[in-house]
Amino acid sequence: MSSTASTSTVIVTPHEGACGATITGVRLAELAELAELAKPAELAKPAEPADRAEPDERFAVVLDAWHTYGVIAFPGQHLDEEAHAAFSRRLGRLENTNLRERDPQRQPTTITLANINRRGELVADPEHKLNKFLQGNQHWHSDSSFKRISAKASMLRAIEVPTEGGETEYADMRAAYDALDGATKRRIEGLVVVHSAAYSQHAAMGTETPLHPDEERNLPPVRQPLVRVHEPTGRRSLFIGRHARSIDGMDDAAARALLDELLDAACRPPRTYAHRWAAGDAVLWDNRCMLHRGRPWDFSQARVMRRTTVAGDPPPGDRNEWAL
Ligand code: OGA
Ligand code: MN
Known about the structure:
The chain has a single domain, classed as Double-stranded beta-helix (4-Layer Sandwich), CATH 3.60.130. It is an alpha+beta fold.
């Protein structure tokens, strides 16, 4: 990572409607480099060098916009692997996304989402396991909502994109909550939803035993509040999506109907934003208050994306077993 001092101003442009913003005028790699420098010994130094203050202010602008808008598009960043991970780490510890193995020493910090196999060959068949997995992501979800402490953030960057389709769409669940009528708000307050990876993978893959036995062991169903407070803004938000299986104390059919109804009402304009990717773009979203889904594309064209996931903060006295 090179460090060119920049005097540019961060430009935050809110999207039309009520979902997300686009930020230009900042190089994330440059902000990420500060995180690399901010080792404990550095942090202990009393005075902030003058040339540091300005980038830190720019990071504060980015962070504030991210909290407010929920999803931020950063066009043309062309982040490398290292800068992608380093910038993501400014938001918190990265999450182990290997569901089979929790050994922090052995975890990659970014994952690939692509219709390309390990040998680097294009996988065009929509029925291939790899593409079934990608199609699972085409249903509204919050990353890792099936984990006890679900993810805080995800950052996706595009390496290769199809000529058409393959957008990623976002929906703001705080705005969705605000749009509910009073009776619905009262009805759902305090409800507890069971999220399960086995459930959503079964729905996506259509197989009876969708999880590897190690995944099954690491990912028992978890309970999440249906209405959750987004800590940075204090706003109420719906925590739903494809991993939501059932609701405590409600029969499965009634729960399914309620979850489907809420999801359907939530993910509509003006609360949505579809990011049309260009190679080099990065998009950062807040999984605590946003849902997202991939949009279909023709699998005979390659789409190669890399993602980091920032682990959710544990409540006081707890720890996140998925944080690296
Ligand atoms: C993700 C995801 C959808 C897409 O990266 O978490 O769901 O558009 N991606 O690739
Ligand atoms: Mn996702």
